[in-house]
Amino acid sequence: MRYVDEYRDPQIAHALADKVARTATKPWVLMEVCGGQTHTLMRYGIGDLLPQGIELVHGPGCPVCVTPLELIDQAIRIAALPSVTFTSYGDMLRVPGSHSDLFEARANGADVRVVYSPTDALKIARENPARHVVFFGVGFETTAPANAMAVWQARREGLTNFSMLVSHVLVPPAMRLILQSPANRVQGFIGPGHVCTIMGFREYHELAEEFQVPIVIGGFEPIDLLEAISMLVAQLEEGRAEVENQYSRSVDYEGNLPAQKVMREVFTVSDRKWRGIGEIAESGLVLREEYAAHDAERIFHLDPLQVEEPRECISALVLQGQKKPIDCPAFGKRCTPMTPLGAPMVSSEGACAAWYRYKRHA
Description:
Layout: H1 10-23, E1 28-32, H2 35-43, H3 46-49, E2 54-58, H4 63-66, H5 69-79, E3 84-88, H6 102-107, E4 111-114, H7 118-127, E5 132-139, H8 144-157, E6 162-169, H9 171-180, E7 188-192, H10 193-199, H11 204-211, E8 215-218, H12 222-238, E9 243-245, H13 257-266, E10 267-274, E11 278-287, H14 296-299, H15 315-319, H16 351-358
Parallel strand pairs: 1-2, 1-7, 3-4, 3-5, 5-6, 7-8, 8-9
Antiparallel strand pairs: 6-11, 10-11
Helix pairs in contact: 1-12, 2-16, 8-13
């Protein structure tokens, strides 16, 4: 077990990069799945340490970035209702809908509040029985257990003034979509460490075997990612396609079974639209029928919307590893963190925001 400082040790980092250079005899394209990993890779310039033939591309692992445009519009509609207190994590407030965002809704008088957990939203509902409190439940498998527990607790307490607008998505179906694409360039994946702390890595074996692609579950420190890259390159050079676990200090094969249990009790798997990508079969979670009284989509009778992304935004290609943010003509000009065209420029975990912060002058 390393001490924390060792996970950022420059000597260890250079030794791992040298190991990759000695191992690689061919060019390889690797994708990190998680937005937190993207942030670390960009912040520490890990791509610059690697030999020229090792290319890192970014995946759809930012939940803010893949929340459907239509759902942002629905959130704004709900928030504008006079009896509603709309609660959300702060980074969702700046995600652009088709015409505005939740910040603008708040400026126009909507009761929109930033919370740090779904339990904060529950507390607001308890303290304000005359208001209907909606929590924007966004995220991958990582945040699903806490959100499921909040809904479970609301039902247990009989909090009829609490509901959740759910936008949960699942990682493996998105990886499958990328691998099935005729335009796919990805030859190996750094698997999502945070997701796997909840889910384990059992379900990734099918992907590795079916598509003959190596997957290494990686952590979030620079040394974690360099080790994962080294493990992937070794597999590729040896012609192996296996699932390996670099992040063993936090992830085991089965994952967090109690967390999975509460997820299964409250949510069920459904098709889900991903922003910029489109609908992916069985890639989302929705509330089960017995929790319908806490489902904001049902309570507010939301009609389906059909809206289009800004035409010049290439976020769909970025999220699938087919383009880099710098390939977008609007990057750093018409699209910045203060004036985002697409969600990947909003969240700190978004690839476009990471490139803007760390690479725009490179």
